[in-house]
């Protein structure tokens, strides 16, 4: 593989192209400044303006959300796993029908395997622009987003209507629902009973990994973060590990699946048969199956990255009640 071919498999943090109209709350005050990034796979954006950096999926999708301080993402749910780690800033995650069933604050490097079957939202509570990276289960990321009813109603008051076809129509641009498309129906009271009001204690205990705890666990071997035998014991269709300079050698290796590298801290030298390159914080690299390569920090100091690989497990529900 030539360096030019490998570069097509790398999405550089500085080259990310945002979409500011990705979801139904794009005009809702408090949510109207957020940016959505689709890095690998089509993601769940409801807007044709969304730029997809790498279309092929390795069994899951990679995306990101960037938000200024006090900007929030509205309450929604997915049918497959949604995992976030904080790249920059300080974030409050909240959940429940009205967003008041529980909440947790995550710092840089922390990872949150958000259970399915729960309405969730998140807010940048830091002092600067923040970024969270996401992993969505399944090649089609579960077919889209299910919004809490009040989110759809609020959006309509600000000119955005979501069609039953999953497409947004913006009256501020002169758009309206096509005659053959109905509005997305609101969930009924009976349907809303299927969404859990998970207690904070259970979520924090079973679904959150703290960065510095994982860094300690990864001192001399990869820290298994999400997986059957991992810190967060779950099988969402992919497994996640945290690597540090002490937990990986410079020997070449290959795997039989796609290997997605998501750099958290430091600069990492990636070497393969055909070239080498350096990965920086926020960069995402999709290494193809069977390619022999090696990975090592290229500078002194803190170095960490998340490594994600698909498994044969279904990408379905994770909430265990």
From TrEMBL:
Q: Which InterPro entries match?
A: AraC-bd (IPR003313), Cupin_2 (IPR013096), GPI/OXD (IPR051610), RmlC-like_jellyroll (IPR014710), RmlC_Cupin_sf (IPR011051)
Q: Which UniProt keywords apply?
A: DNA-binding, Isomerase, Metal-binding
MF terms per GO, please? DNA binding; isomerase activity; metal ion binding
Q: Where is the Cupin type-2 domain?
A: 69-133
Q: Name one GO biological process term.
A: regulation of DNA-templated transcription
Q: Which residues form a coiled coil?
A: none
Q: Which residues form the AraC-type arabinose-binding/dimerisation domain?
A: 256-300
- Per the record, the domain of life is Bacteria
Q: Does the keyword Amino-acid biosynthesis apply?
A: no
**PANTHER family recorded for this chain?**
CUPIN TYPE-2 DOMAIN-CONTAINING PROTEIN, OXALATE-BINDING PROTEIN
Question: What is the protein name stated in its UniProt record?
Answer: Mannose-6-phosphate isomerase, cupin superfamily
User: What is the scientific name of the source organism?
Assistant: Cohaesibacter gelatinilyticus
